[in-house]
From TrEMBL:
Keywords, ordered alphabetically: Amino-acid biosynthesis, Cytoplasm, Histidine biosynthesis, Lyase, Nucleotidyltransferase, Transferase
InterPro entries recorded: IGPD_sf, ImidazoleglycerolP_deHydtase, ImidazoleglycerP_deHydtase_CS, Ribosomal_Su5_D2-typ_SF
The protein, known as: Imidazoleglycerol-phosphate dehydratase
Top enzyme category: lyase
Localization, UniProt: Cytoplasm
Gene3D superfamilies per record: Imidazole glycerol phosphate dehydratase, domain 1
Length: 196
């Protein structure tokens, strides 16, 4: 059974279409109108092994906030839909990702109890034209709509670009493990409750 999904979300602020294939090869086709954000989402796809198609048209004449947050919402919803009740997966994942002077750790649980622990401090308020505070907005929207408990922490780092990129890569690598099919679950949700 294909673990794929498509979610479309249209509001007065953003128009978004996202398609995912959890069993893909990390191919991305991303256009949000924000170059640096596209770069981060390309990394999310590549290092998670999830094929990701994103088309976002947002009110960039105002700022990047709605575009970034709403894209996080829809990607989270699409992956959740493709997971079909979290059946048969490993559920947990973690990763340490170094990038030059920066080291970031991510641990996540696909548990249908969304939460975000965010211990990431940027050295600059912007990367190019991108407000670094928007990275938390993306990760929060993504976790809440996926139903994931995500703990993301930059252990150390100086360069804001490296801090952001290592965070997306760590999230991706943790997600890659968590969404993998675990034959020992025999297709059931991996929970003592029997359901997630």
């Amino acid at each position: 059974m294909a673990r794929t999904a498509e979610v479309v979300r249209n509001t007065k602020e953003t128009q978004i279409t996202v398609r995912v294939d959890l069993d893909g090869s990390g191919v991305s086709d991303v256009e949000t109108g924000i170059g640096f954000f596209d770069h981060m989402l390309d990394g999310l796809a590549r290092f998670s092994g999830i094929d990701l198609y994103v088309r976002t048209k947002g009110d960039l004449h105002i700022d990047f906030h709605h575009t970034v947050e709403d894209t996080g919402i829809v990607i989270g919803q699409a992956i959740r839909q493709a997971l079909d009740g979290f059946k048969g997966i490993y559920r947990f994942g973690h990763a340490y990702v170094p990038m030059d002077e920066t080291l970031t750790r991510c641990a996540l649980d696909l548990c249908n109890r969304p939460y975000l622990i965010w211990k990431v401090a940027f050295k600059t308020p912007k990367i190019g034209e991108f407000d670094t505070e928007l990275f938390k907005e993306f990760h929060h929207a993504f976790a809440m709509n996926l139903g994931a408990c995500v703990h993301l922490e930059t252990l150390y780092g100086d360069n804001s670009h490296h801090i952001a990129e290592s965070g997306f890569k760590a999230l991706a690598r943790a997600l890659r493990t968590a969404v993998e099919l675990d034959p020992k679950t025999h297709g059931h949700a991996p929970s003592t409750k029997g359901v997630l």
